[in-house]
């Protein structure tokens, strides 16, 4: 065998042995430990509402751009039955409705048509650069969240809107962006009104639901019941301890804690192994999670 060929053979063998060695070493190495908090979802509260006007498409798009895992927003219903994205029962706090319609106090969403609401400025109250932002419809919201990010939809004051369970079910069924989210297990509907949520769950059996809690942690009885039909139990951070998280998990439920806007609270919740942290500052939470 010519010397050159033998030399090449030796080099090839050496290379293969090295590669094999690396592969074997990698193969026998202990499985990598998940970084603390690596499975905690960043949930943008009312969109990225610390930096853009809550419940507008600007806040939703910013949340997506900031790599939030989930975007949380609120639903109300107009006089003509359209589902829109807004936190309060009234339009007064987050739009210019008082100036535009001075004789229509208390400016409840339920007293205005979608066409009227679409003329309102939902951005100027927050900062001048958001002037002209509109109150989005649920369909527009779905398109803005898109096909990669999770959706957490809170139905506000459902007792004010008879039939809203069926309205929401129809829309989630009709629009491809929501059907895709449901197929990918990326959409949850939550509410503080547990009786309504139970009804909704019976109407929309394919939609995962979450119970919001205020004024204290969930009781053992509430969790035992929720475990038979819901997927999430979501209390406020101030109402929880690590034991609450363990208790919720012991019932097979997830917990997304709200609304955590300071680094200390975020670290506390991450340390408790919550499933998601709901925050106005998704970028801050993302940075904390990345730094570990
Ligand atoms: O998602 C939890 C949180 O949104 C509940 O509070 O009043 O901001 O809707 P609120
Ligand atoms: Ca909410």
TrEMBL record:
Keywords: Signal. It comes from the Bacteria. Residues 40-289 form the GP-PDE domain. Transmembrane segments: none annotated. Residues 1-34 form the signal peptide. GO terms for biological process: lipid metabolic process. This is Glycerophosphodiester phosphodiesterase. GO terms for molecular function: phosphoric diester hydrolase activity. InterPro entries: GP_PDE_dom (IPR030395), PLC-like_Pdiesterase_TIM-brl (IPR017946). It comes from Nocardioides euryhalodurans.
């Amino acid at each position: 065998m010519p010397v050159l060929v033998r030399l090449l053979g030796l080099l090839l063998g050496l290379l293969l042995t090295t590669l094999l060695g690396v592969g074997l070493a990698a193969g026998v190495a202990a499985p990598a430990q998940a970084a603390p908090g690596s499975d905690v979802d960043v949930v943008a509260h009312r969109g990225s509402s610390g930096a853009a006007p809550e419940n507008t498409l600007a806040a939703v798009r910013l949340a997506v751009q900031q790599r939030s895992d989930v975007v949380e927003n609120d639903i109300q219903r107009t006089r003509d039955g359209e589902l829109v994205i807004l936190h309060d029962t009234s339009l007064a706090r987050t739009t210019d409705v008082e100036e535009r319609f001075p004789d229509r106090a208390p400016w409840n969403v339920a007293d205005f048509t979608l066409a009227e609401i679409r003329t309102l400025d939902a951005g100027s109250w927050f900062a001048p650069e958001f002037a002209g932002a509109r109150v989005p419809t649920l369909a527009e919201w779905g398109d803005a969240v898109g096909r990669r990010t999770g959706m957490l939809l809170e139905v506000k004051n459902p007792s004010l809107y008879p039939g809203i369970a069926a309205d929401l079910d129809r829309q989630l069924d009709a629009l491809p962006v929501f059907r895709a989210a449901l197929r990918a297990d990326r959409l949850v509907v939550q509410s503080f009104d547990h009786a309504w949520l139970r009804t909704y769950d019976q109407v929309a059996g394919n939609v995962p639901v979450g119970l919001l809690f205020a004024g204290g942690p969930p009781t053992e009885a509430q969790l035992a019941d929720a475990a038979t039909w819901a997927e999430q139990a979501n209390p406020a951070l101030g109402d929880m301890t690590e034991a609450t998280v363990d208790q919720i998990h012991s019932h097979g439920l997830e917990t997304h804690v709200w609304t955590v806007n300071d680094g200390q609270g975020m670290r506390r919740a991450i340390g408790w192994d919550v499933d998601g942290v709901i925050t106005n500052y998704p970028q801050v939470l993302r940075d904390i999670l990345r730094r570990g």
